[in-house]
Amino acid sequence: MNEFIAPAASWSAAVIETIGVGTITVFALYSLFNAAARMLRKEDSDSIFQELRQLLGRGILLGLEFLIASDIIYTVAVELTFETIGVLAIVVLIRTFLSFTLEVEMSGKWPWQNNRLRDS
Question: Which key words are in the record (predicted)?
Fold first, then answer.
């Protein structure tokens, strides 16, 4: 059974990883082209910079989610050892830290602060 699951999981992980990298790339290019177009229209440079950072941050966050998913699929279905689980834990920890810091950078508050503000 594993002889069928491992190749399918490996292929799935590669596809999802490609989607993650593609997402980051597309958002980065779109953000740059959008900022360049707005600069040519002589819009306020501070608002251009803020929107550029917002769009780029969202793209990176979304891409990181896909990359984490591909790492989990590959590790669990293809290479399940204590060493690969340890490496996966470290990678997920680093990417989760990056996600949190990007969220704080973009919104100016921790993700759980939004719920408290809405409930009040």
Answer: Membrane, Transmembrane, Transmembrane helix
Q: Model's pTM, two decimal places?
A: 0.75
The two three-digit tokens of residue 120, written as one number: 């009040």
61-81 per-position pLDDT tens digit: 899 889 989 988 888 887 778
Q: Give the Å distances, CA to CA, from 77 to 11, 19, 20, 45.
A: 11, 19, 19, 48
**Rounded-to-integer distance, Cα 117 and Cα 106, Å:** 17
Q: What residues contact residue 107 under an 8 Å CB cut-off, 6+ apart? A: 114
Domain ranges of the chain: 2-119
Q: Which residue has the tokens 């810091």?
A: 101
Helix, strand and coil in the chain, % to nearest 5: 90, 0, 10
Q: Tell me: the pLDDT tens digits for 11-41?
A: 999 999 999 999 999 999 999 999 999 999 9
State residue 108's pLDDT score: 74
